[in-house]
Design a protein that fits this description.
CATH architecture of the largest domain: 3-Layer(aba) Sandwich
Shape: globular
Number of strands: 11
Strand order of the largest sheet: 5-6-7-3-8-9
Number of domains: 2
Oligomer: single chain
CATH superfamily of the largest domain: P-loop containing nucleotide triphosphate hydrolases
Radius of gyration: 18 Å
Number of helices: 9
Strand content: 25-35%
Order of helices and strands: EEEHEEHHHHEHEHEEHHEE
Helix content: 25-40%
Distance between the termini: 39 Å
C-alpha cells in the first residue's frame, strides 16, 4: 500500500482547492484530517479515489480496488428500497463484477462485516429505517467487506450517537492493527488526538502534518482556523472561529 503526496495541489476542472500537500502514510497508520468547514478535507479524500484532480505536484495512491471509501452521511438515498445486507453486498461488486452472482464466500464476508460493526441483527432491515449512527456503521461495513488496504472515511462521526461512535472507533483500531491504512476527516480535536498516528491540518493548504502532539498545538490551530485557539488546564483546546 502506497499513499504519498508531494507538493500536490488538489481540486476540480484544473482549479486548486488545496495546495502544498506533502504527506505519506504506511500500512496500519491512521491519518486524521482536521480543519474548518470548507477547508478541503473532503476534496483531499476524493482525490484518493479519483473523484477530485491532482492539479500540481505528484500523488501516488493505491488502485481503486484496494481502497474502501465511506463518504459523508447522506450519500446513499435513505428512501432507496434496499436492506442493510444488500448495501454491504455492494462493496463486493468490485471483486465480483456486476455480471456475476454473489457466492457463499461473498455472503459470508457480508455477514462478517455486519458483525464487526455490530449490525448483524439488522441485516434484513431496510436501510432507510435505521438511525443515522446505524446507517454509518452499515456504510463502514460496505467499505471493509472487500478487505481494502486503504480505508477513507469522510466525517464518519457527524450525527452519530455515542454507541455507534464507539463501535466505529473499535473497528478502525482493529483494522489498523491488522495493517489497514486509513484517512479520516473530523472536526473533533479530542478524537483526532486519541485516534491518530498522524494529523494533517488543512485550510486551503496544508498547514502542518505530524504526530498529534506536534500538530494539535494552540499556535498551529490558530494558523489553520484563522481564529483563536485557547488551551485549557485539562489539556483540551477550544477553537473560536471568526
Amino acid at each position: 500500500m502506497e499513499l504519498r503526496y508531494s507538493g500536490a495541489g488538489v481540486g476540480y476542472q484544473g482549479k486548486p482547492v488545496l495546495s502544498d500537500i506533502d504527506l505519506e502514510i504506511r500500512e496500519g497508520q491512521r491519518l486524521l484530517l482536521v480543519g474548518p468547514n470548507g477547508a478541503g478535507k473532503s476534496t483531499l479524500i476524493k482525490s484518493m479515489v479519483g473523484l477530485a484532480e491532482i492539479v500540481g505536484g505528484t500523488a501516488t495512491t493505491p488502485p481503486r480496488h484496494e481502497t474502501g471509501y465511506v463518504p459523508q452521511s447522506g450519500s446513499l438515498d435513505a428512501d432507496f428500497p434496499v436492506s442493510a445486507r444488500q448495501v454491504v453486498m455492494m462493496g463486493r461488486y468490485r471483486r465480483l463484477g456486476w455480471w456475476r452472482p454473489a457466492g457463499r464466500a461473498d455472503r459470508a464476508a457480508v455477514t462478517d462485516a455486519l458483525r464487526r460493526v455490530g449490525m448483524e441483527d439488522r441485516a434484513g432491515h431496510r436501510f432507510g429505517t435505521l438511525s443515522g449512527g446505524q446507517r454509518q456503521r452499515v456504510l463502514l461495513a460496505r467499505a471493509i467487506v472487500a478487505a481494502p488496504k486503504l480505508l477513507l472515511l469522510d466525517e464518519p462521526f457527524n450525527g452519530v450517537d455515542a454507541v455507534s461512535q464507539e463501535a466505529i472507533v473499535t473497528v478502525l483500531r482493529e483494522l489498523s492493527a491488522a495493517g489497514t491504512a486509513m484517512v479520516v476527516s473530523t472536526h473533533d480535536l479530542g478524537l483526532a488526538r486519541d485516534l491518530a498516528d498522524l494529523v494533517c491540518l488543512l485550510n486551503g493548504r496544508q498547514w502542518a502534518v505530524g504526530k498529534p502532539g506536534e500538530t494539535l498545538t494552540v499556535s498551529a490551530l490558530r494558523q489553520t482556523y484563522g481564529g483563536s485557539a485557547v488551551a485549557l488546564d485539562d489539556g483540551r483546546t477550544v477553537l473560536v472561529e471568526p
